[in-house]
């Protein structure tokens, strides 16, 4: 009787591997449908996994789909990391949420947004490079679009530039600390020199302007990345109630797609 009265009535589902230190397996976003119990989990390594709830043990294979978000004639082998590899063959599934489908982006990029519709049986997900829509029932990718431009993909020195700038800022800060200690000692003997304070304020203002310019450049580089996805029923198409997919980018642009359910399937 005491075991039956435990509160809250939660049951642990799944396992945790304390020896796994791969940052690509980090969870970015979770979407749960309360009607169909479909669970969608997106990860830092560009993977999107579909789980279905079951009360029984199972031994089924997990199908892997590769989503191509590369530009034409783009070599991403040196710029980005390795694509996650999905285990092949049948896997032992414990009662609870069991993996059914896994989609991996190529090249890998952290998933920024996920939207699912169990009515249409589709899951849409986006990242900094583009977006894709896959059919869960047929286990295939319906469409994949790369939203970045060619000049954005060629900019591979932004990280080196940020490291170089951070080192320069650290050296400046160290010099300011030394000069500040010297001025504190000299302040005991004479008044504060206004010219030095003016130079420090100008240097701080210049550093602030450089930081703002760098932030603007980063936002411009990620301007075409998909920031948010949403699936809803609207009257946008000739006064008919249809299900649409809305995609918003970091630059403020919004695209609308309609799901055509009049096909043979």
Describe the structure.
With 265 residues, the chain is an alpha+beta fold. Helix content is 24%, strand content 37%. It contains 3 helices and 14 strands. The protein has a 5-stranded mixed β-sheet, with no helix packed on it. α2 runs antiparallel to α3. The two termini are 51 Å apart.
Q: What features would you highlight for this structure?
A:
alpha+beta; 4-stranded antiparallel sheet; extended; 14 strands; 265 residues
Provide a concise account of the structure shown.
The protein is α+β, with helices and mostly antiparallel strands and about 260 residues long.
Summarize the helix and strand pattern as letters.
EEEEEEEEEEEHHHEEE
Number of strands: 14
Largest sheet: 5 strands, mixed
| Uncertain ranges | 156-160
What is the tally of helical segments?
A: 3
Q: How does the overall form come out from the CA principal axes?
A: extended
Strand content: 35-45%
Report how far apart the termini are: 51 Å
Q: Structural class of the helices, strands and pairings?
A: alpha+beta
Percent of residues in helices: 10-25%
What Rg, in angstroms, do the CA atoms define?
A: 26 Å
């Amino acid at each position: 009787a005491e075991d039956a009265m435990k509160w809250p009535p939660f049951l642990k589902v799944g396992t945790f591997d304390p020896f796994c230190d791969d940052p690509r397996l980090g969870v970015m976003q979770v979407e749960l449908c309360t009607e169909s119990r479909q669970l969608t989990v997106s990860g830092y390594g560009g993977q999107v996994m579909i789980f279905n709830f079951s009360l029984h043990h199972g031994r089924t294979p997990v199908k892997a789909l590769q989503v191509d978000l590369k530009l034409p004639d783009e070599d991403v082998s040196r710029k980005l990391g390795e694509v996650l590899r999905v285990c092949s063959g049948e896997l032992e599934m414990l009662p609870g949420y069991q993996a059914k489908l896994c989609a991996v982006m190529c090249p890998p990029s952290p998933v920024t947004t996920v939207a699912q519709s169990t009515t249409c049986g589709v899951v849409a997900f986006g990242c900094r490079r583009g977006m894709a829509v896959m059919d869960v029932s047929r286990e295939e990718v319906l469409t994949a679009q790369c939203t970045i431009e060619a000049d954005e993909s060629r900019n591979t020195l932004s990280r080196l530039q940020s490291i170089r700038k951070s080192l320069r800022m650290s050296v400046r800060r160290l010099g300011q600390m030394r000069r500040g200690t010297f001025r504190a000692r000299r302040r005991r003997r004479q008044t504060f020199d206004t010219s030095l304070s003016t130079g420090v304020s100008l240097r701080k203002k210049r550093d602030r302007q450089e930081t703002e310019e760098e932030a603007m450049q980063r936002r411009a580089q990620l301007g075409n990345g998909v920031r948010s996805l949403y699936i809803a029923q609207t009257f946008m198409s000739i006064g008919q109630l249809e299900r649409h997919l809305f995609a918003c980018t970091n630059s403020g642009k919004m695209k609308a797609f309609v799901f055509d359910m009049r096909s043979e399937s």
